[in-house]
Amino acid sequence: MTSTTRLKRWFIQQVLNAETTDYPWWKSAGVFVLRLGYAVLRDLSRGQLMLQATSLVYTTLLSLVPLLAVSFSVLKAFGVHNQIEPALNQFLAPLGPKGAEITQRIIEFVENVQVGVLGSLGLALLLYTVVGLMQKIERAFNELWHIRHQRAPAQLFSDYLSVLLVGPVLIFTALGITAAVFGSETVQQLSAVQPLGLAIELITRIVPFLLIIGAFTFIYAFVPNTRVQVSSALVGGMVAGILWQITGWIFAAVIATSSKYTAIYSAFAGLILFMMWLYLSWLILLIGSNIAYYHQHPRYLRWLHREPRLSLRMIEWIGLTVLVLVAERYYRHEPPWSAEQLAARLRLPQQPFDEVLNTLSDCRLLERIESPQAVSYLPAVPLEAIHVREALATLRRHGEHRGLTPERLHAPEAVQQYMTQIEVAPAERFDELSIRDLALSAGTSTEQPSSVALDARKSHRSRNAP
Fold first, then answer.
1. pLDDT digits (tens, 9 = 90+) for 262-306
2. Beta strands, E only, 283-429
3. Radius of gyration of the chain from its Cα atoms, rounded to whole angstroms
4. pLDDT tens-digit profile of 354-392?
5. Could you tell me the residue range of the domain that residue 359 belongs to?
6. Residues in a beta bridge with 338
7. The last residue of a domain, from among 239, 274, 302
8. Residue 116: what pLDDT?
9. Which one of 16, 313, 376, 410 is separated from 242 by 20 to 30 angstroms, measured CA to CA?
10. Which sequence ranges form a coiled-coil region, renumbered to this chain (predicted)?
11. Of 278, 302, 326, which marks where a domain is finished?
């Protein structure tokens, strides 16, 4: 056995598969950090994050000027539109002199876009381009968070436009106030007094970094179409902020100062460097969102060395168990289960469990209820009308294509008879057993799924006894 194989086996046993409940806090935190780092590196190696970052670069190039034009128009109404150029200069600072040149070009484009003379159709197209960019960003984040459902159109425009109209004002107002405070005469006088001068200089350097972390945290909390915990968004924002600063220093020191790009790309060197920096910025933003997801769903970190896929048997077990748990709370008049609560209750990783929930929702067995707090589930039809055999058959048949059914399969007659008997046998035995029967017979003892099934069978037999 090679040393690499031994190291890999040790990492799987001691890190990925380790039970950290009995560990001291420092050891448990160390295992979590190792799992988190492995998860991010694995996702990067698969290339999906890089592909999404590349797609967002292309969308940004098409939407940057309309986005800044809308922000410029809003900021101009509040008298803080002059803050756009310093903000762009700060964002493009790693590009060196090319950054200042690109900033000047972008500002010229924005000033040439006169929103007032565009007309209703032109303004609508401008807003559509901007909202399209934000929708593209949401789709990338939703994919990282394993969310299939996008925001509803009404919610989409209300949320996005509120951010577009209010967000720039708050951001640039904060930047303006910060610059005014540190540039005031009082602060300048205090800076001459030591050690207050060192403290003020340190705060001056830290505040922009804290504003960047705050911006990343807001994006991670707002953009995904799910409830993101503030702590998880903050962890992702802190990591992304640190990565963004370090990457900016490296980019400015190594890439932007190199003369090779100017020699190779000539007049296009500035555009190439701008696209590279956009790509790295989007990639860092997506990595931070990925970290926020794993921080909020740490159970998924235990399944990193193998892709968690559910067998047909597990889909049936989980689907029936979820229906019974939802029915129990429904009959007790308790708050409905959320997706995260159900996954924690069954001790399952979130991603494959969400697939079962989506299947139950697509089959109209459960109703998906969205709220700002969480996504919860209620029965979609009367529970006494859902028979166990029908629910299992629906789960088993979900996703079948019309042209790929057993009826169209040219199987031997013996196979057809045997498979038909397998499907008919449960129906004959539990013909009238409904989800409501299972829920009521389970009562409050739902810790052991097998006991639930046994109690339900006893209840069914007693009801059918002569």
1. 666 666 777 788 888 899 999 999 999 999 998 988 877 766 655
2. 366-370, 375-379
3. 28
4. 888 888 888 888 888 877 667 788 888 887 888 888 888
5. 312-464
6. 376
7. 302
8. 56
9. 16
10. none
11. 302
